[in-house]
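Need residues for this backbone.
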């Protein structure tokens, strides 16, 4: 099965073709003028638009598929990677490269990410929404070996957080630093 995605640039569009085993090829397709008229035609026919934070979009969202709960599990995988490493797994300077990284599952894994954490994230970032961890419900995520230390999920909700930030107002960002200055946080198994 092949997918075609247009990755925009100022002068030409690159068509990225990705088959089901993850291999890809790309080629320049058209000028910006041609792409704008195609976009206008798509808008006129009511084609779906992508909405969301680019780094967190599941491949099926980029490909124009409908929404499903499995997309949320993809986002959990992205968030977990970002919490452990300090940046999203598909991060790049430009949007087309972020989308290409997502579609090709290009992830640079730091050595410090433990085996169980990596396995969990790999399963949450499965490109196939039907086989993605969580596709059959939260119980399969909770039963992953990464969470073996959690003995009672119900009491976890009632427990107090180990760190509660003190903020001066609802928009206080004192605990945040810019991404370029954030050192990665590594946890090992």
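Answer:
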């Amino acid at each position: 099965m092949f997918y075609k995605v247009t990755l925009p640039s100022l002068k030409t569009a690159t068509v990225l073709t990705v088959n089901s085993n993850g291999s890809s090829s790309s080629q320049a397709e058209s000028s910006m003028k041609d792409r704008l008229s195609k976009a206008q035609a798509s808008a006129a026919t009511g084609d779906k638009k992508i909405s969301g934070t680019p780094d967190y979009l599941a491949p099926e969202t980029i490909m124009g598929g409908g929404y499903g709960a499995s997309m949320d599990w993809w986002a959990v995988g992205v968030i977990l990677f970002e919490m452990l490493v300090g940046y999203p797994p598909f991060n790049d300077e430009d949007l087309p490269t972020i989308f290409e990284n997502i579609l090709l599952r290009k992830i640079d894994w730091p050595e410090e990410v433990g085996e169980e954490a990596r396995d969990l994230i790999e399963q949450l970032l499965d490109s196939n929404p039907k086989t993605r961890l969580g596709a059959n419900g939260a119980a399969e995520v909770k039963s992953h070996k990464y969470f073996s230390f959690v003995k009672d999920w119900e009491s976890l909700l009632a427990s107090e957080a180990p760190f509660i930030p003190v903020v001066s107002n609802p928009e206080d960002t004192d605990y945040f630093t810019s991404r370029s200055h954030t050192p990665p946080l590594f946890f090992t198994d």
